[in-house]
Each structure stands twice: as structure tokens, then as C-alpha cells.
Amino acid sequence: MSLARWDPLMELRRMREDLDRVFGAAPQLGMLIPWMAEGIAPAVDVYEKGDHVFLKINLPGLKKDDVEVTAAEDSVSVSGEFKHEEEVKESGFHRRERQMGKFFRTIPMPTAIKPEGVKATFKNGVLEIAAPKAKTAKAKEKKVSIEA
Rounded to whole angstroms, how far apart are CA atoms 69 and 49? Predict the structure, then answer.
């Protein structure tokens, strides 16, 4: 007999599926509790190279017009919606695992960026964002006198 690894988040996803079946789907849940909506919160890679921070975000099935990107000095936010392609009403339909609904994700930057210089491209379901690093002024050192 082999042991199965226990995944507490899997248990929460199963509970969510059960509640969705009883009360109807709740796509807003992913916005309130993003870690429960693993399928709705898109996967993101963040890395630094040279004077830029790069993000790669998986958004399969979406088009560039379905996605909105906003940038601040300390983060980049991505939002959009995965929509149902068609409703299957056949009796042979057994599972629906692809998550559908709105998503919103704010990704903190590892360093300050220049929001006005951020560029995004969308190709083959992958959103790529290049954010130039902000030129931060070097902190000036000042001697502090100690009072008695």
C-alpha cells in the first residue's frame, strides 16, 4: 500500500467545489481568497536581468484585449476574465475543471520600477512585461551627534 501526500489546499479546493455544487458557482471567491482559486490566479515568473524586471504570466485562451495591465513603482497588476466558450448540455459531460471567471493579481516588484516605461506583449497565451528599474538616488550618509 502506498501513502498519499496530504495537501491541505487540495482539501480546501474540494470543499469549494462541493459548496459551488450546492450553492452555485462563486467566481468572486477567487478575488477574495486568491490562494483558493489556483486555476483563476495565473502563474507568474518574475526575474531581473540588467536594468529591467521581467514578468511572464500564463493566460491560455485569452486575447490581448481580454487583459488589463497597470503599473506602480512597487508592483504590477494584471486583471481579466476567463470566459466559458460554450455550454455543454450533453449527458456525457463528466467534469469541468478549467476555471472560468474574473481574475486580479498584483505582483510586488523586487525593486522600484518606472511605471511610465513599462511595456507589455502578448503572444501564444503568455503575457510578457518588461519594467525598467528606477534609478534610485544613493542614500546620503549623515553623521548623527549623540546627546548626553
Answer: 21
